[in-house]
Amino acid sequence: MNAAALQPVAAASGLTLISHALCPYVQRVAIVLHEKGLAFERRTIDLAHKPDWFLEVSPLGKTPVLQVRGESLFESAVICEYLEEVAMPALHPQEPLQRARHRAWMEFGSTVLSGIGAFYNAPSEALLRDRAQDLRARFVQLEQVLAERPHAGPYFAGPGFGMVDGVFGPVFRYFDVLDSVPGMADFALWQGLPQVARWRAALAARASVQQAVGADYAEGLRAFLFARGSALSRRMGAPAA
Ligand SMILES: N[C@@H](CCC(=O)N[C@@H](CS)C(=O)NCC(=O)O)C(=O)O
Question: What are the residue ranges in the chain where pLDDT is below 70?
Fold first, then answer.
């Protein structure tokens, strides 16, 4: 069979989201597609064994890729901005300064995702503790931003769900699994952060956030974390690497 025959076939909507089951960047695109009522086909790949057709359409070899009428878009933020331009409802504020501010907090969300990766990959208990402190510092920053809002939420921009929310739904979802790892409570990641807690709960209850992953997400994430060979893996009962 040749490579072309293995390429994803665009769904009737013309949108195919090339995904990895645990990827938070894929999730943010899936959330935006759902919020905008856009049907899409999802094509899940194994990043540990990237098919040739995937490498042909993903210049950086990363998920997500959104295929639109035969064009392959990569980089989740770019994909989300494209969707914002072509489909309603608007998920960004209309006012340019506020829109720029929201994009900046999306970028902040990507930095938190890097911090989560650094945390679960930490090779030693000492580094795990340091990286937990880094994460805690980010959540404290978020609490301050949320506390200074001129409205009551529950979302970043108020009562309406926005693009920033689509970034943080997948961020907080990690902790639905991580919070149950032995000893996590000692890091006090969420202590004294009521606004963040409320935001996290509102995002977890949102249909678009829920549907962005499969039913086996939590189990898959646990298996992934267990297999990292990291300090966190050992806390989960994995043998020392
Ligand atoms: N900046 C990229 C980041 C995407 C990214 O890092 N995706 C990860 C999976 S979550 C990936 O494909 N990594 C490549 C690999 O694991 O080989 C975006 O926003 O789309």
Answer: 1-13, 241
